[in-house]
Amino acid sequence: MPKVRDPRRCPTVSRGGFTLVELLVVIAIIGVLMGLLLPAVQQARSAAYRMSSANQLKQIGLALTNYETARGRFPAGYTSDPVRFTPFADTLDAGPGWGWGAMILPYLEQGGLYDRLNLTLPCWAPENADAVRTRISSFLSAGADSDFDAIQITDSSGTVVGVFGRSHYVANVGQDEAWGYSPPVADWRSLPSSRYIGPFYRNSRTRAAEILDGLSNTVFVGEHMSISNKTWVGVIPGTESCPVDVNRFPLTTCDAAATFVLAHSGPSASEPGIIHPPGYPTAHVCQFFSPWHGCNILFGDGSVRFVSNEVNPDVWSAACSMAGSEPMSIEF
Question: Using 50, 70 and 90 to split pLDDT, how confident is the model at 162?
Fold first, then answer.
């Protein structure tokens, strides 16, 4: 009699698969590999950001050179006219306040924006309000941990008095903190430390021939990101540049409006013997600073070099003066 297959009984089928232990081992291996690769990826990304920022500085350097060729001098750090505009008592800053970044716009392929600016009016005038909010890629570094939106400019009471386009680069005023004197000084070139002044300061008209230390040995522009907000537009008298996070940067405080576009190296009259190398952990709003333990720095000859925060402080300070005749070789 033929056998009848019982449909309730299924043949045993061998199915391949991972056990729980095997699965956990695979996950652990993947985790270890990711842990090994992540630092390498981060380093590669940081290196790419640094290179991108260096290229931005080279473009700024070319614009500054073209400006000097066309006009016989480099742009002012920022402009101040106490005859036409009432100066702020604490610093003697006055309008129109336009900064070096605004002056080189035609040489950064931003001639259309430059034409929209009414330079005879203060940079914070309502007629300029729309134009000065403009985001300009040449002044922004992909490596910055801040956003790229326009920044609010506030006075000491926290009142917003202007909204300006952001910049991650500031120009070199030299060793001294010229805006920090009390009583304030009208002409920064009259200071006892004027020998150690940099190429960009209030109402500067620096010619290449005046940079006696040599263009290749003189700092022009460098990175400033993370600590505080900076702008390409200019300076509003009576405002302050403040740390964006006082908990992250507890050693810094608000500083004068000039630091929205300028930085210094030290030592200054108010801080004898104190020098701020680029990216140094003191993290003042008035120094060059970036996230990578040093900074990309543009020199007067158009070269861009990375300067470590471990640079010899005296060498760094010497590089920030344009006619100090310091007896040392500037090597980084």
Answer: very high
Banded pLDDT at 14 (limits 50, 70, 90): low
Neighbours of 319 (CB within 10 A): 28
CA distances from 234 to 2, 97, 204, 294 (A): 101, 5, 14, 25
C-alpha span between 174 and 323 (Å, rounded): 10
Instruction: Indicate if the pLDDT at residue 12 is higher than 60.
Output: no
- Tally of residues, the chain: 332
Long-range contacts for 132-135 (Cβ within 8 Å, ≥24 apart)?
A: 132/162, 132/163, 132/164, 132/165, 132/233, 133/163, 133/164, 133/165, 134/165, 135/165, 135/166
What is the per-residue pLDDT across 223-261, written as a single tens digit (0 to 9) for each?
999 899 999 999 999 999 999 988 878 888 999 999 999
3-class DSSP assignment, residue 262: strand
Nearest Cα neighbor of 223 from 175, 172, 151, 275 is: 172
Helix (H) or strand (E) holding 256: strand 255-256
DSSP letters spanning 77-95: SEEE-TTTSPPPTTT---S
Inter-residue contact 311 to 332 (CB < 8 Å): yes
State the pTM of this model.
0.87
β-strands 262-264, 169-174 pairing: parallel
Residue 162: which of 119, 188, 190, 127 has the closest Cα?
127
Q: How much is the CA Rg of the chain, to the nearest whole Å?
A: 27
Q: Which whole number is the average pLDDT over 38-42?
A: 56
**Average pLDDT estimate for 45-70:** 93
| CA-wise closest residue to 214 among 316, 63, 326, 296 | 326
